[in-house]
Every structure is written in structure tokens, then in C-alpha cells.
Write a structure and sequence with these properties.
This protein has 223 residues and is of the alpha+beta class. It is built from six helices and ten strands. The two termini are 30 Å apart.
Length: 223
């Protein structure tokens, strides 16, 4: 099975080297530990969460704010809004710069959605994080360094695919996000060995493609 990548587009990257304490507090930073902020927007939210987590593995930064916007990037509030705003906080601008660089590497070369059908009207995110950073590990209730399958698809595709992933690999669900999400998708975080997470992601993607190809299942006794 070959899925066509749908690369995310970073819409804005800005730094506030010496943020006002009121701004720090409003966005979840701690003025006693944080002074500088790095802000990003992107047209895909889930790859952004993964890339923000990656930043915590390469720099002394914290993800202090990360929220998806309602209705998705096609209904954004402005040209640069996209689907999510993420904010990194650090004690000095150099740390934030390193975090932003790691974020960009991940979102440009690693995390992205894939088309599950010919016209890319159905997308799937069967992403495996081999080693969690400090951000997503805390969100998932796991330890940094553990593996996690980060799985996202539209509502019915994602529900059928989650069942297939859980049955197809030795993994356990740490969080399930039933629809609707802010972007009207369904998601789940599964953990296990790296091999198991990869097997779960493959099973998930295969199931999404199968539903996309045959959305209406023939019922017994009906022609």
C-alpha cells in the first residue's frame, strides 16, 4: 500500500526574545523560568504537535501552548492562522531558536498526513514516534523515550481503523479522542514496543484505505 504524502505548510514562525510577563502568563509560561517565546502556525495540527514534542528533545524549551483551531485550516481566521498555534518557551532566545530549528526539521521531513484515496479527499495520519519527548509523554501519561503510535483519520474511517490497529498489534490505548475534534477528525494514541507501534500504524492506515475504497458495506440479506 502506497500513501501519497500531504506535506504540512508552516505559515508563520516568530520569536519574542524578551516577552512581557503578562504575555508569558497568558500563554502558560512561567516568568520565573521562561523569558523567550517561539510561536508557530501551520496548516496541519497533528504534525505540529509531533514537531513541538520533537523540539523538547533537542533544546531546553517547554511547549506552553498548543491548540487546534475550530473547523480546520480551510476555515481559518486569517492567511497565517492555519489549523494550530504552538508556543515554545525558554529561558533565553538561543534555546528557543534551537527548539524552533528542531520543530522545522521534524515538520519538513518527518510528520505529515497522507492521502488515503486518489483525490486526497480522505487523509490519514499513521505516525509513529519512536522516542517521546517531554511534551507528548506528559500529555499521554507515558515516560519520555517510550514509543507511541499517533493515529488520526476522519470519524468513521478512524473508528474502524482504531479497532483494526488494536487487534492487529500488541499495543494498548493510552488516549482515544472520539469525534468531533476541533477539526472534526478522530484520533488515538497507542503505546507498546516500537515494532508493535509500527504494526499498529500499518493496520490503521490499511483500514482507512479500505473504508475509503468501500464506504458502504453490503449487509447480509440485502442486494
Amino acid at each position: 500500500m502506497i500513501l501519497e504524502p500531504l506535506p504540512p505548510k508552516v505559515l508563520s514562525v516568530r520569536r519574542i526574545p524578551n516577552a512581557d510577563p503578562a504575555v508569558l502568563l497568558a500563554y502558560g509560561a512561567d516568568p520565573a523560568r521562561h523569558r523567550s517565546l517561539g510561536l508557530v502556525t501551520c496548516d496541519q495540527d497533528d504534525p505540529t504537535y509531533v514537531a513541538l514534542d520533537e523540539a523538547t528533545k533537542h533544546a531546553r524549551v517547554d511547549v506552553v501552548f498548543a491548540k487546534s483551531f475550530w473547523a480546520g485550516s480551510k476555515h481559518a481566521s486569517g492567511k497565517l492562522s492555519g489549523e494550530i498555534l504552538g508556543v515554545l518557551a525558554g529561558s533565553d532566545p538561543d534555546e528557543v531558536d534551537e527548539g524552533l530549528a528542531a520543530f522545522l526539521r521534524c515538520i519538513e521531513h518527518d510528520a505529515c498526513f497522507f492521502a488515503a484515496n486518489d483525490d486526497a479527499s480522505i487523509a490519514v495520519f499513521p505516525h509513529v514516534i519512536s522516542s517521546l519527548g517531554r511534551y507528548l509523554s506528559a500529555e499521554a501519561g507515558l515516560e519520555p523515550g517510550q514509543s507511541m503510535a499517533y493515529l488520526v483519520a476522519p470519524p468513521i474511517e478512524g473508528t474502524v481503523a482504531l479497532d483494526a490497529a488494536l487487534k492487529g498489534a500488541d499495543v494498548r490505548a493510552v488516549k482515544i479522542f472520539p469525534p468531533p475534534s476541533p477539526t472534526n477528525f478522530a484520533a488515538a494514541w497507542l503505546t507498546g514496543s516500537l515494532d508493535a507501534c509500527e504494526a499498529a500504524a500499518v493496520a490503521y492506515a490499511e483500514a482507512v484505505v479500505a473504508v475509503a475504497r468501500g464506504p458502504i458495506e453490503r449487509l447480509p440479506g440485502r442486494r
